[in-house]
Design brief:
Blueprint (H helix, E strand, L loop, with lengths): L1 H31 L4 E19 L4 E18 L21 H29 L1 E4 L2 E2 L7 H4 L6 E6 L2 E2 L3 H14 L2 E7 L5 E7 L12 H4 L13 E4 L4 H5 L6 E5 L2 E2 L3 H9 L6 E7 L2 E7 L2 E4 L5 E4 L2 E3 L3 H7 E4 L3 H27 L11 H14 L1 H19 L7 H14 L5 H31 L1
Antiparallel strand pairs: 1-2, 3-17, 4-5, 5-6, 5-7, 7-8, 9-16, 10-11, 10-12, 12-13, 14-15
Helix pairs in contact: 1-2, 1-10, 2-9, 2-11, 2-12, 4-9, 9-11, 10-11
Length: about 450
């Protein structure tokens, strides 16, 4: 229940920030271009908080409100199509504006989301983030990675001549290229420190046509060293501390089964929630046996797992090899933030396009439950991770709203394009029909997203 409330809180915070910036884009441009704004609402339905304030050069009284359903928002402008407008105010109604003015107001919403993403990425790059280096594990024998010649401990340097610093950057660059390229050039330094070029041969395989991680399905996974199960620290009041486990103890057996790696040890302990366990450790050259009852907790899939409250002793040499810090000073961070926003926008659009033509599985669509889960998890990790999450969702919101689907901003821009070509607006009947089709498409998309969320919840 606590996790649910935490996820819900940060979901509302995230959505509130993104919706506010999106609607502020419409609001600010409308005011600057002289259109009368009547209401700025974050959320739909009945307002639970409202205040009024005079804004703009005309000092119009605008109602600002927070509404009960936090799944969007809107800016209400004076419009002859929805209300009677006096003669002296007709020049300030939205529908009487030129095509350029109306287009600018509509486009300002998605643009605000892209600008917000740039600002968020700028903060992330300036603050700096510790990330895994792009060191690859031995690929499965039947994978694209194995067929392309990749080996364990290959360190990726470039993808199609684009510099790569982190595993996340490699995954995004590879997926972006694999969607449209049959062959991808990847520069690596192998474990013998020899620079070489490998070619990922995707061919005609559609990497998005099945559910799951497309990069892992190609055979690319993060390399992790075999780390001995040495204790770096025990949790105060935890099971291990109470049993007598100390820092620098080396675990050599779990329930008399010999162990040699931290991963193996964690797996055995996790599989024994609330079950009596024998832990054999080596301390000062002698072996000691401790009996304990691992505590139980739910993992992200809702399954009980055991834990005893210990932290890994991380060798400095391993940390230096595994991790890198991506950080830029203020001005270089601007260019990096713009490039990141552009590349994420392009990738999002490519994935959506593949879904429309049937080359990407609909199971990959996520809905509000999955987004809420990631909101809570990233907020729990730290500020940089939460800001990165907000930036990704802001980009997605910007791209989604620019799709040429009636009821979205892109749909309105499509109507304006027809108006530009014809020299007059589409008929009200045609626009109403388009709105109905657009609403149906959105409802279908939302239904798929929620269905996928529910399936993940119970899988």
């Amino acid at each position: 229940m606590a996790d649910f409330l935490n996820n819900l809180l940060f979901f509302i915070i995230a959505l509130g920030v993104l919706v506010t910036f999106h609607e502020f884009g419409h609001f600010w441009v409308a005011l600057k271009l002289g259109v009368k704004v009547q209401r700025f609402s974050v959320g739909f339905g009945k307002a639970f908080y409202t205040y009024k304030r005079k804004v703009g050069k005309y000092q119009d009284e605008v109602e600002f409100s927070l509404a009960a359903i936090p799944l969007g928002g809107y800016v209400k402008m004076l419009d002859e199509r929805v209300e009677d407008v006096s003669e002296d105010e007709k020049a300030r109604a939205f529908n009487t504006q030129s095509l350029a003015v109306r287009s600018a107001i509509v486009f300002a919403g998605p643009l605000a989301n892209f600008l917000l993403a740039i600002v968020l990425y700028w903060f992330v790059f300036v603050m700096g983030t510790s990330a895994f280096q792009p060191i690859l594990a031995e690929p499965p024998a039947d994978s694209i990675a194995a067929a392309s010649g990749f080996k364990a401990e290959d360190l990726v340097k470039q993808v199609n001549d684009k510099d790569i610093m982190t595993m996340t950057a490699f995954r995004l660059a590879l997926m972006d290229a694999a969607i449209s390229d049959a062959q991808i050039k990847v520069s690596v330094t192998d474990k013998n420190n020899t620079e070489t070029i490998r070619y990922v041969r995707v061919g005609d395989k559609k990497i998005l046509d099945v559910e799951g991680d497309p990069v892992e399905k190609m055979g690319f996974n993060l390399w992790l060293p075999v780390i001995p199960p040495a204790i770096g620290q025990t949790v105060a009041g935890g099971v291990a501390e109470k049993a007598g486990i100390l820092a620098n103890d080396l675990i050599v057996a779990v329930n008399d089964k010999p162990v040699s790696s931290w991963t193996e040890t964690v797996s055995l302990i996790s599989a024994s929630p609330a079950k009596k366990m024998r832990l054999t450790v080596r301390r000062d050259g002698a072996e000691k046996i401790f009996e304990m009852l691992p505590a139980a907790r739910k993992n992200p899939e809702g399954v009980d797992e055991g834990f005893i409250g210990v932290y890994l002793l991380r060798p400095e040499s391993v940390l230096n090899k595994l991790y890198t810090t991506e950080q830029y000073s203020a001005f270089p961070a601007i260019a990096e933030a713009i490039e990141k926003t552009w590349s994420m926008s392009a990738l999002t659009l490519k994935v959506l396009t593949r879904m429309l033509i049937g080359e990407a599985a609909l199971e990959n669509i996520s809905g509000p439950l999955t987004i809420a889960k990631f909101a809570g998890e990233t907020a729990g990790i730290g500020l940089v991770e939460f800001l990165s999450f907000l930036a990704v969702i802001s980009v997605s919101l910007g791209v989604l709203n620019l799709l040429p689907v009636p009821v979205l901003d892109g749909g309105h821009l499509l109507f304006y394009l027809f108006e530009f070509i014809k020299g007059k607006p589409l008929s009200e009947k045609a626009q109403q029909y388009g709105q109905q089709v657009g609403m149906m498409l959105l409802l279908m998309l939302m239904s798929v997203a929620i269905f996928n969320d529910i399936q993940r919840l119970f899988s």
